[in-house]
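Milestone M4 deliverable, item 7.
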Amino acid sequence: MIIKFLTKLVKAFFNLFMKQRIFFCFLFCLTFFAKAQTDPLTQVHGARSQGMGNLRVHGMDTWSYFNNPGGLAKLETSVVSAGYDSRFGLKELSSVDLVGAWKIKSGTLGFGLSRYGGKLFNQQSLGLAFANQLGIVSVGGKLEWFQTQIEGFGSGSSLIFSLGGMADLSPNFSVGASISNLSRSKLSKDSETRLPTGVSLGISYTPISQLQIQLEIEKDIQIKPILKAGIEYGIRDWIFLRTGINSHPSRLFFGLGLKSNRMKLDYAFGQNQALGSTNHLSLAFAFKN
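Output delivered:
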């Protein structure tokens, strides 16, 4: 009886030790990959933006809900989009997104749903956004519920507020900014760990109708600034080629877009020399006015 009791006690301590090791491994991975911009709050959503160099500010499509809420005001019709991201060949770093935008009299109303991670560790968000055009300026805000769950350690959630906008200084030139987690929300009400807060500033230049050039600088309060540059070229009205580059860490991006009257399919490929490749796919459906 004593031997059985001691055996069970040893197994219990061993299981607890292993769970702690897994937990701290996840914390380490979170810190590392957050710097590589793979966590849900700082990663860029939508294959078009990712194909142009992981750009955030001047997306001006449904994915602006995640990237820059002010861009939702630029939409001409109501749109629903879905996306899937596969990172570095690891299922635990993949994400699935659903986002929509509806044009109403007072502006554009958006919603978004995102899930990142696997069974042991995952994060999900659900929220609403609103954007409006005020002269040459478009501005929008987003409020979302964000949850983090670690198997064996429970879950925590918080409310996050983000803000963004852009200004058209000329028909060919615009500037913009986006602030994620402006509220400086914590991981949960019982935690002192704050979720990432990032600020992005960008410019967009369209020398001809088929060509768009974008430059951005992104700064998380805990890491060095990241410089980004991207180009999109329309070979025809229905096919687009994209490429981009990032610093810190150095990354290359390539993308392809296909567009019809109401459907849009985008694919992006990213290469990180240290971690490997990423693949991004998104599909959009536009409703009639």
